[in-house]
């Protein structure tokens, strides 16, 4: 799994859909999950308002 997270200002449509006030940024989280063949099987792109989010990541270190 690969995850790319970046912060940016939302466009007008995103700001309206998320009911965001003025200068609130969003996090764009693009996650690519690959199967055993190495091909992508899921690629969700999630938009998160930064004023309403907390994150916790857990990884196995084998």
UniProtKB/TrEMBL annotation:
InterPro entries, alphabetized: Chorismate_lyase_/UTRA_dom_sf (IPR028978)
Top-level taxon of the source organism: Bacteria
Protein's name in the database: Uncharacterized protein
Taxon lineage: Bacteria, Bacillati, Actinomycetota, Actinomycetes, Kitasatosporales
């Amino acid at each position: 799994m690969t995850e790319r997270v970046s912060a940016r200002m939302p466009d007008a449509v995103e700001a309206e859909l998320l009911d965001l006030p003025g200068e609130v940024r969003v996090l764009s989280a693009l996650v690519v999950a690959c199967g055993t063949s190495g091909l992508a099987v899921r690629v969700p792109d999630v938009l998160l308002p930064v004023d309403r989010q907390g994150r916790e990541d857990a990884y196995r270190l084998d």
